[in-house]
Every structure is written in structure tokens, then in C-alpha cells.
Amino acid sequence: MPPAATETVASDAANSTAPAPYLNTMPGSDFNWQVTLAKKVVAITGANRGIGLGIAEVCLANSAKMVYSFDLMEPGEDFFTLQKQYPNFRFVQTDVTTEESVEKAINQVVEETGRIDGLVANAGMTKHQPALKFERPELEKLFNLNVFGAYFCAQIAARKFIELGIKGSIVMTSSMTSYRPNRAAPSAPYGATKAAVRNMCHTLAMEWSHHGIRVNSISPGFVRTAMTYYVEKSPDWDIKMQYYGGMPRLADPRELGGAYVYLLSDASSYTTGIDIPIAGIVGAW
Ligand SMILES: NC(=O)c1ccc[n+]([C@@H]2O[C@H](COP(=O)([O-])OP(=O)(O)OC[C@H]3O[C@@H](n4cnc5c(N)ncnc54)[C@H](O)[C@@H]3O)[C@@H](O)[C@H]2O)c1
Fold first, then answer.
1. pTM score
2. With a 6 A CB cut-off, is 79 part of the ligand 1 pocket?
3. Is residue 120 part of a domain?
4. What is the mean pLDDT of residues 183-199?
5. What is the pLDDT of residues 140-177, one digit of tens each?
6. Is residue 243 one of the residues assigned to a domain?
7. Is 228 in the pocket of ligand 1 (CB under 6 A)?
8. Which atom of ligand 1 is nearest to the CA of 101?
9. How many structural domains compose the chain?
10. Separation of alpha carbons 185 and 85, rounded Å
11. Do the domain assignments include residue 11?
12. Cα distance between residue 224 and residue 217, in whole Å
């Protein structure tokens, strides 16, 4: 089937080697300098629980028009509790490791709301074990979700922003393990995936700045989610925390949300290509 006219324009713009016309992100003279997501439609991958759900809650508390969770698993109790408070929180079943699935989800958002302003590439996984034990399939699984998933989510969202002429914002969830090892739970491949995520944001930000698209990342430290299951199993955790220094506790996922809101909002119109580490200075990272 031949592509629709809009698809042709989008792919021409994305594939062209000619410099794109500069879409300036500078706010107009009537800009409301309040940090807000009013009128913004945001999609967050892996927002049915954990950090993604925390980001969703803070986006909704800061007036986002619609927030979509693109998640592989069916929504659970946590999702529905938040949805009860904010009926403008929706779920689209999505596998971020499949481009067709991501494209379908983004198209559904645009069909339902007429737009998409922000994409948070947050879905990710880890595997904790000594480096000497890792086998290739385990690395492939980690890179497929954490790196390829984030990359294609960003690419597909950017194409849609360009097609719609929207000055979109992309935020990726990296990790403090992109800078330093996690002494509590070793995973060399995971740290490598998160370093890739943080790194790709610089180049994507540079390449897409002419389209008015900003790309940034956030690097959380220890956050209380299913991913930090090992904390509960560690009877000497309090001592470890004292040893690590900094704030002797894990973060609530919502404590990261303000940074995502800022990066998704027009208040950060000149902020692109950066990483914000949010780690309570634990481990003097
Ligand atoms: N928890 C931490 O301490 C911590 C620290 C630094 C970075 N991170 C990063 O934060 C992000 C979220 O982690 P979390 O702790 O909330 O984990 P989590 O396991 O609680 O949540 C991950 C979510 O992603 C979804 N998901 C998994 N595979 C998917 C796929 N193929 N397509 C769509 N969704 C998929 C899961 O269903 C789940 O809802 C991850 O990228 C993780 O690496 C977490």
C-alpha cells in the first residue's frame, strides 16, 4: 500500500540530508513562565508500576492533559489507583522492543488526542550477577530492551513530532550505574546499557535540535521499586547505607518526577543534551 501523504512528508524530512529549517523553541512574549504540563500529551514507557508510574503521577499532578503508559504487562492495582484519581491516565499495551508496537501505540495516542508532546523512554530491566557468569543471550535481552527499545521509541516519537510540527521533548531513564558500579548488586551489562542510553541523548539532541526536539536523560540512584528487590533481602542494608554516605534511604519514585516534568515542559526550552543525576548523593557518586 503506498504511504499516506503525511507519512511521505515525515519520512522525507527524516531522511533528507539538506539542513532542516530551524524550529525555534524560544517561548513567545505571552509565555506563562510557570512550570506546567498544561495541554501536553505525554507517553511514558513502563508506567504501569515503579518509576514510570511515579513519573506519571507527578506529570498528572502538574496538569498534563493526558498521560499514557506504554507497558507490556497488564495494569495492576497501583495503575488503577492512580487512574481513579486521574481518569486522564491511560494504558496502551506496548512492547517497546518491537518498532511496530511502538508506532501503533504512538499513532493511537495521536488518533485519540490529536497530538503527542512528550515521550519518556523509561521501560528497562536488569540482571544481577558476576560479570564472569554472563552469557550472550542475557546481554542481548538487556540491550534489546534498555538500548534498542529506548532508541526506537525516541526515533518513532521524533518522526511523529516532525510530521505534526510539534516541538517535542524526549526524556530517557538512564541510571547512576551509567557513571559508576552499583556496589550493592553487580551488573556490568546493565551499567553498559544505561551508559549507552545517557550517551545517545547527546547526539540525538544535537541532530534533532533543528526540529525543535529536545532530548535529555535522568539518572536515578536507588529507588524503591521491584528492581531494588535485593534491598529487602539484605539484613545489613542500613549499615551499607551508612557506608555509602549521602541520604541513608531509597527514593520514592515520585521524588524523581519533578525533573521529568521540568524536562517535558516548555520551561526547559533551552535545555537539551543533558543528564540529571538524582541519587541523594548516595555513594558520593
Ligand atoms: N529502581 C531503581 O533503583 C532504578 C535506578 C536507576 C534506573 N532505573 C531505571 O528506571 C526504569 C524503571 O525501572 P523500575 O525500577 O521502575 O522497574 P520496574 O521493573 O518496576 O518497572 C519496569 C516497567 O517496564 C515494563 N516493561 C518491561 N519490558 C517492557 C517492554 N518490552 N515494553 C514495555 N514495557 C516493558 C514492565 O512491565 C514494568 O512495568 C528502568 O529503565 C530502570 O533501569 C531504576
1. 0.94
2. no
3. yes
4. 96
5. 999 999 999 999 999 999 999 999 999 999 999 999 99
6. yes
7. yes
8. 32
9. 1
10. 35
11. no
12. 19
